[in-house]
Design goal:
mainly beta; Thrombin, subunit H; Pdz3 Domain; six-stranded antiparallel β-barrel; six-stranded antiparallel beta barrel; 26 strands; about 10% helix
Length: about 450
């Protein structure tokens, strides 16, 4: 087994040792008129991932699927649905791969997803290239994490603010099951989590949500986005939930203090802290290797069961949704009798940026599906030893790339200011934008450097 194998933060047995914290003083909830959830649709077939770098098939772990994606920075991100209990395990592959049951996938169209930000605590109105007109009542703030008087700039105050908005999610289907985390979006029951946390619930399983104040209720899936490893569920029978406020992940800086809250190893209401280690690390996640995003990397301890929970700044505002970790494959960590043991955090965790997560959540609430930007090219990792970049292997006729003049054989080097050194890096850079956004690409053709502005197209999840 390779060192630093990535694995999913929510694939271990639930311990039941976590006790919900007593509720803090309630935040005035935003309680817009509820939107009827869209009917649950079958998970879309895995479209070709825009990467042909030798991915490995999905490996069943703890009754759900753990995945080990190729990574340009070493190790393998692993993803899953929970800290699943006393279920069969499988050896992790020696080579990084993302969670996929389908083996190597062809590179077809570079699809990109969103970015949500906001200009008001009760809207999802994005004013930059991540424009969105969807307003579904999420709390959004433009604060950048500079300590505010309300939180006093402390980890404890930030944790106190976010904890009432964090839930523990238990999913069961036959002999399979798992535990993950989630963050409350609205007072009327909408909750954001990872798609891999609730995927069993989409195939006939049951989903149960436990609030920090001890209340428990059943939940159903409102919408899933496998391309971003995000899902929105709605809990029934519980009222006056405390919605979280989403901050702007685009404003994060390396070294900034962040706090993670969730149910690692089934221990609900667990708080850890650290710093932002990187603001745009390409990572794969999801049940079928389609989820690729520019992750917020952190050294805050994240373990199986943290999946879907929030990463927050010192204002207590959500800046990421925890989705993956890198771990030492040699084992270790908390041993719970009767449960499968997997190694835990080594200080390399990854969260889906809040700008991206809030936009996708809004679209899932509004219509049950999310939309992603499309570049319209097939790409492969470059075998050049002198120039970094990714090679365009084919261009979709009539697509955004073709309209901008890209051709097969072009070596793409940057998207806006982001250097792309792997196919995943290009995919993640494109997916960090909303459909219709304009991006500047630099590429090499015939030994000459060129730049072109591309208006990204649109596809749905």
């Amino acid at each position: 087994m390779a060192d630093n194998d990535f694995y999913d933060e929510s694939q271990q047995p639930a311990s039941g040792d976590g006790h919900p914290a007593p509720p803090t003083a309630p935040i005035d909830p935003i309680n817009p008129a509820p939107i009827d959830p869209a009917p649950i649709e079958a998970a879309p077939p895995a479209s070709p991932a825009l990467y042909s770098g030798g991915q490995q098939p999905t490996i069943p772990v703890g009754g759900q699927y753990g995945y080990y994606p190729p990574s340009p920075y070493g190790g393998v991100p692993q993803y899953g649905g929970g800290y699943a209990g006393s279920l069969p395990t499988a050896e992790e592959p020696a080579k990084p791969t993302t969670r996929s049951r389908f083996g190597p996938l062809l590179a077809l169209a570079v699809v990109a997803a969103l970015i949500g930000g906001g200009v008001g605590a009760a809207t999802v109105a994005i004013t930059d290239h991540n424009d969105s007109s969807v307003d579904t009542g999420l709390r959004i703030t433009n604060d950048t994490g500079v300590p505010a008087a309300k939180t006093n700039g402390t980890i404890g105050a930030a944790a106190d603010k976010i904890r009432p908005s964090v839930v523990t999610i238990n999913v069961a289907s036959g002999q399979s099951g798992g535990t993950g985390s989630g963050v409350i979006l609205r007072a009327d029951g909408y909750i954001l989590t990872n798609d891999h946390v609730v995927s069993l619930g989409a195939s006939g399983g049951t989903i149960q949500v436990a609030l920090s104040d001890g209340r428990i209720g059943p939940a159903t899936i409102v919408g899933r986005d496998t391309s971003d490893d995000l899902a929105v569920i709605k809990v029934a029978g519980l009222s006056n939930l405390t919605p979280a406020t989403f901050g702007r992940s685009a404003s994060l800086s390396v070294g900034q203090t962040v706090v993670a809250v969730g149910a690692p190893l089934g221990l609900s209401d667990t708080v850890t802290s650290g710093i932002v280690s990187n603001t745009a690390r390409p990572v794969r996640s999801g049940d079928n290797d389609q989820a690729v995003f520019e992750a917020v990397q952190t050294d805050a301890a994240i373990n199986p069961g943290n999946s879907g929970g929030p990463l927050v700044d010192l204002n207590g505002s959500v800046v990421g949704i925890n989705a993956a970790i890198a771990t030492d494959s040699s084992g270790g960590g908390l041993q719970i009798p009767g449960q499968t043991q997997q190694s835990g955090s080594i200080g390399i965790g990854f969260a889906i940026p809040s700008d991206e997560a809030s936009r996708i959540a809004s679209e899932l609430i509004a219509g049950g599906k999310a939309y992603h930007a499309v570049l319209g090219v097939s790409v492969t990792d470059s075998n050049s030893t002198t120039t970094s970049g990714v090679t365009v292997s084919a261009v979709t006729a009539g697509g955004p790339g073709a309209d901008a003049g890209l051709k097969a054989g072009d070596l793409v080097r940057t998207v806006d200011e982001t250097q792309v050194t792997s196919a995943d890096a290009l995919i993640a850079a494109v997916r960090s934008h909303a459909p219709g956004a304009q991006v500047k690409l630099t590429f090499v053709r015939g030994g000459q450097s060129h730049s072109v502005t591309v208006t990204l197209g649109k596809s749905d999840s």
